[in-house]
Amino acid sequence: MKYNVWVISKNRWAQVGGPFKTLDEAVRARLNCVFSTGDLEVREYRDPELPATSPRKDDKQKPRWSLFPANTLMQVLAVLEHGAAKYGPENWHGVVKGPDGRQRYYNAMMRHLESWLNGEVRDIDSKLPAMAHIACSALFLLWDDLRKEKNNE
Fold first, then answer.
1. What is the full per-residue pLDDT of the chain (153 aa) written as tens digits?
2. How many folded domains does the chain comprise?
3. DSSP the chain
């Protein structure tokens, strides 16, 4: 078993050391690392050329959620909660399926992007990240694309 040390700093993961032979070595190395404000996470790493010494798990073809950027999903969910409180749960379904729904979410996405480009990193109304609002609008449009594709529309 080999260990690499990763830290999160400013919502980005960075490898700061490794591979180490023991978890204790990895933790001690983290104490001397320059990313002192990050949270410690030690991820297991096995060299593919070494024989497996741990129990087998067949998950190579399954989604690797660990690739998803840390903390971002919670921000998107916070925007969805804000929208549910303001307009009602799943109100967006009806909007996106409406006659001009796709255009409305595209326009909302672009308004948030324009605000973000002008330095407004948080939405004035919700106080949540503008990028999370952009992501929600993009997800609504993606959801509609997949729905239409499935129904051959």
1. 555 555 555 555 556 566 656 555 555 554 443 332 344 444 444 444 545 555 667 777 888 888 888 888 899 999 999 999 999 988 999 999 999 999 999 999 999 999 999 999 999 999 999 999 999 999 999 999 999 999 987
2. 2
3. -EEEEEEEETTEEEEEEEEESSHHHHHHHHHT-S-TTSEEEEEEE--TTSPP-S-----TTS--GGGSPTTHHHHHHHHHHHHHHHH-TTHHHHHHHSTTHHHHHHHHHHHHHHHHHTT--B-TTT-SBHHHHHHHHHHHHHHHHHHHHHTT-
Residue 76 and residue 44 in one domain: no
> Does the pTM exceed 0.70?
no
CATH code assigned at 6: 3.10.20
For residue 25, the enclosing domain spans 2-52
Question: Do 79 and 138 sit in the same domain of this protein?
Answer: yes
